[in-house]
């Protein structure tokens, strides 16, 4: 199919608005506010969190609310048709007979499929009077390109649904703590918009999503011929989230050499399927060298291993890592704290999903040097008074308050 045909098929807004949901993500006003400046806007996030929907909502808003001529807005997904951006731009200009240097809004979706995409974007931005939006699902591939756009670009990161967004999307309004807790348990399994509202099979949806990322995105972007070891690696991380990975042992188990294993871990991280958490040290070089923990990037991905049961404590730990965007844990000669977070890495966070928690269970965090200490628990857990006097107690459904 030609570029011209794709232009017509992808740009429905030239004739009528896109069909988009009324629900808007919390990031949408930030995207709207970026329209009036000259910066390139890069929208990054995992697959199926709603990046394309939000970009089409932006186009609808500009056309319907700001009276922008729809024929001055170009949308093009590089996932559907791969071509260089200048060829796409030229086809757009020719399609309508626009002046070559007209003032246009250009939206390039899933741009990571275009090699050296940043140089293409830079050329258009520096030579034409256009506002440019780009999006993609591979964080490292996009950020590597962004480096060459320094001073010209704004990065926005769209995560899976927050709990507040989930409640709005599902039109839920829990009135009691117990009701909030029950909603939160469901939310952890429904952090993508389509799963939250469309009643699709969670496991089937996640399996298809992961297959699309591993056998589609990763295979194309990294020229991987056999993705079976990558699938096995992701499955192992989902079965044992938060386990310290000893590369030599795991490489032997999967029949890989250590360097290949590390490459596959990096690829999964770039694809926003897993999250790497470093062993905290005051010396950044030591943190890099120490063993690391890996979690699914967000909690709903744990459905990939169903019906294999995941211990609720591990599921909660995955959730806390997601909500706090955790990058560090602490381990010193067998003494561990689950996460170290905060702008200055001043907050220690321990996750315990037991029915009752005594001082011995949280001895390490109690004796640690961190100035702010948090215990994340299940609702209704019985906690010794001495612990409550020393730690900030946060129920799992309010874990985001740790960052307040």
What does this protein structure show overall?
By secondary structure, the chain is of the alpha/beta class. The chain folds into 3 domains: 3-157, P-loop containing nucleotide triphosphate hydrolases (Rossmann fold); 162-199, no CATH class; 311-404, Trna Endonuclease, Chain: A, domain 1 (3-Layer(aba) Sandwich). It has 17 helices and 15 strands. It has an 8-stranded mixed β-sheet with strand order 6-8-7-9-10-11-13-15. It has a 5-stranded parallel β-sheet with strand order 2-3-4-1-5, with helices on both faces. α12 (247-254) packs across α13 (258-270). The protein is globular. The relative contact order is 0.08. The model has no long low-confidence stretch (mean pLDDT 92).
Largest sheet: 8 strands, mixed
Described by the principal axes of the CA atoms, the overall outline is: globular
Strand proportion, as a percent range, falls in: 15-25%
CATH superfamily of the largest domain: P-loop containing nucleotide triphosphate hydrolases
How far apart the termini lie comes to 51 Å
SSE diagram, text form:
Layout: H1 3-10, H2 28-33, E1 40-44, H3 51-64, E2 73-77, H4 85-96, E3 104-109, H5 117-127, E4 130-136, H6 139-146, E5 153-157, H7 163-169, H8 177-187, H9 193-198, H10 202-222, H11 228-239, E6 244-245, H12 247-254, H13 258-270, E7 274-279, H14 284-289, E8 292-296, H15 312-323, E9 328-332, E10 335-341, E11 347-352, E12 356-357, H16 363-366, E13 372-377, E14 382-383, H17 385-390, E15 392-395
Parallel strand pairs: 1-4, 1-5, 2-3, 3-4, 7-9, 11-13, 12-14, 13-15
Antiparallel strand pairs: 6-8, 7-8, 9-10, 10-11
Helix pairs in contact: 12-13
């Amino acid at each position: 199919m030609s570029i011209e045909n794709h232009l017509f098929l992808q740009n429905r807004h030239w004739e009528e608005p896109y069909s988009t949901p009324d629900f808007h993500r919390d990031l949408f006003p930030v995207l709207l506010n970026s329209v009036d400046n000259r910066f390139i806007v890069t929208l990054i996030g995992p697959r199926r969190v709603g990046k394309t929907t939000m970009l089409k909502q932006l186009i609808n808003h500009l056309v319907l609310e700001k009276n922008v001529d729809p024929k001055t807005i170009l949308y093009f997904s590089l996932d559907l048709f791969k071509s260089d951006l200048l060829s796409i731009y030229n086809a757009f200009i020719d399609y309508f007979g626009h002046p070559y240097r007209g003032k246009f809004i250009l939206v390039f979706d899933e741009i990571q499929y275009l090699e050296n995409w940043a140089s293409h974007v830079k050329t258009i931005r520096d030579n034409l009077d256009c506002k440019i939006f780009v999006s993609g699902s591979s964080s490292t591939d996009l950020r590597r390109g962004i480096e060459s756009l320094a001073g010209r670009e704004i990065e926005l990161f769209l995560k899976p649904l927050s709990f507040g967004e989930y409640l709005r999307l599902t039109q839920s309004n829990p009135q009691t703590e117990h009701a909030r807790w029950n909603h939160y348990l469901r939310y952890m399994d429904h952090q993508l918009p389509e799963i939250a509202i469309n009643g699709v099979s969670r496991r089937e949806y996640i399996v298809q999503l992961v297959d699309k990322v591993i056998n589609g995105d990763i295979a194309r972007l990294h020229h991987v011929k056999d993705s079976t070891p990558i699938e096995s690696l992701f499955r192992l991380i989902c079965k044992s989230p938060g386990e310290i990975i000893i590369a030599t042992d795991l490489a032997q188990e999967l029949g890989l050499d250590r360097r290949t294993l590390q490459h596959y871990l990096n690829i999964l991280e770039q694809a926003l399927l897993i999250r790497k958490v470093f062993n905290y040290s005051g010396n950044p070089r030591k943190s890099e060298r120490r063993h690391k923990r890996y979690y699914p990037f967000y909690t709903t991905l744990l459905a990939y291993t169903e019906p294999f049961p995941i211990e609720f404590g591990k599921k909660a730990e995955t959730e806390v890592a997601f909500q706090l965007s955790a990058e560090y844990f602490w381990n010193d000669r067998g003494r561990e704290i689950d996460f170290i977070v905060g702008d200055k890495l001043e907050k220690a966070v321990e996750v315990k999903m037991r029915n009752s928690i005594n001082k011995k269970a949280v001895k390490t965090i109690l004796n640690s040097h961190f100035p702010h200490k948090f215990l994340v628990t299940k609702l209704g857990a019985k906690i010794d008074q001495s612990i409550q006097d020393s730690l900030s107690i946060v129920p799992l459904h309010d874990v985001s308050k740790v960052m307040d």
